[in-house]
Amino acid sequence: MSSDLIWIKMIPFGTLFNVLTVLLGGSIGLFLKKRINPELNKKVFFVIGLFTIVLGLNMSLKNTDFIVLLLSIVCGTLLGEWIHLSAQITTFVNKLKNKLHIQSDNFSKAIITAFLLFCVGSMTIVGAIDEGLGKSPTILYTKSIMDGISAIILASTLGVGVLFSVFPMLAFQGGITIMVFYYKDFFPLLLVDYFTSVGGVIILAIGFQILGYKHINPINMLPSLIFVVFIYLVKLQF
Q: For 85, which of 28, 80, 145, 154 could close a Cys bridge (C-beta 3.0–4.6 Å)?
């Protein structure tokens, strides 16, 4: 296989299409923002919260090894709280906001919420892995349409930060595809299920946060996605 063909095969076309649909949907949402009644916006946002909880619950049940799930969530959340991950990410995003002279009160919330909803899910992981394995990115194309529609609603309620979520999306989702392309033998399906289940719990936390529950911080739970890999590797030894 020539080097040019290899270079083309490793381009994450599914993720690039996903980025375009989010940008398009977010732009439509911003256009509609001033044309939608604020009270209607609140009701739609509440519905998003309910949908997010249902989505997270469905994802979290992909794997029934609840000990792995519990250990991953507890250890990851403890680490996230200890290093104040949420505060660090928010500070970074606010610096970006100030540097770009963006006037949006919800910029940090928008970019973080949108990224978590778009990228911490089974379709993201499985779709990116499939493309990395050389399969058609059909899953990512389907996900892209769903994300584009969600971006309309999110941008109409949270603002321009939703559009900026495509940068971490490109790095995370596209990064998985490229990594699998080079290390395709190291991604067992069971680990994908574990990853999806932990991601589902984080999505659940996002749903509760959208509905106004302030005692759970989904950002500080993100290290759980790293711990689940370590716990899976430890489990293989026994």
A: 80
